[in-house]
Amino acid sequence: MPFLEGGGDKFVRDLAHLYLFGGHPCANARSVPHTITLLEVPLWADPRREAELRCHYARQPRDPPLHSVKWYRDNNEIFRYTPQELESRAFNNSEVTISNSSCSLSACVVLVRPERGGARYTCEVSSEGPRFAVDKRSANMTLAVLPEYDPLITGLPTLVQVGETALVNCTSDYSLPAAEIDWFVDSEPQEDPLITGVTHVSGADGDGLRASWRTLHVFPEDYATPRGYLSLRCRATLPTRPPHVRSMAVRLNHFGRCGGGGHFCEVSQGDVCLDIIASARETSAFVTQMKFGAV
């Protein structure tokens, strides 16, 4: 036969290699994987409730049949659905428990109860041989209970007089994990431990949630502002992946220096400045003159 002459031996070798390692030459030449069309993994998982993982996939005409669907938590297989078998298999471990499942030739849904931390969940869909082609997609899910409310600032005085300090507190709602709290004065972070101290965390409640709080000592004369108030902001951050942030902002009204010669002023909600001019006389008697006028 002419095609065996010269390069015929190579053709036979290539054909044998294709049969052994690439499938029978008469088999479906496409041999592509089922395509994952939808992956739904919650961004946050409440340990008190089950989380639903959903994976949809499609088979195109002439594609090989579905071989299996597998779910992974990071690198560990936690669930497997094989259409040829009567029952699915769950691989429970100390980090996650499979409580229920519902799988078919087009979708696989599992209910999990994570025990701790965050993880990457992967759906892997493979087609029948000879190639057993695979398609897979992943998404992160973090074990967390988000606070229901914004942080609360308490202890705010109506007005801070010259030379006085204010002690305010910020409390973050119960959550998992507990929130880290940061203070800002006029948008500047307050990092001095003598001013802000540390974030305190409460004991766990019946669901394992914890509240946190942090105080702020404010000495208005340390901040250069002509407005008559300081803007205080408390930021509560859950160290999740990605971080979850909530905050609250208030104004701290205070008397501040608005000029030399012992002048002090307060800027209230309007644009009115109250000047208190104090002068001493040789008799040690003080005369205070109060006047109102535009700033």
TrEMBL record:
User: Which PANTHER family does this chain map to?
Assistant: BEAT PROTEIN, BEATEN PATH IIIA, ISOFORM D-RELATED
Q: What is this protein called?
A: Ig-like domain-containing protein
Ig-like domain sequence ranges: 33-142, 151-251
Q: Which InterPro entries match?
A: Ig-like_dom, Ig-like_dom_sf, Ig-like_fold
Which source organism does the UniProt entry give?
A: Papilio xuthus (Asian swallowtail butterfly)
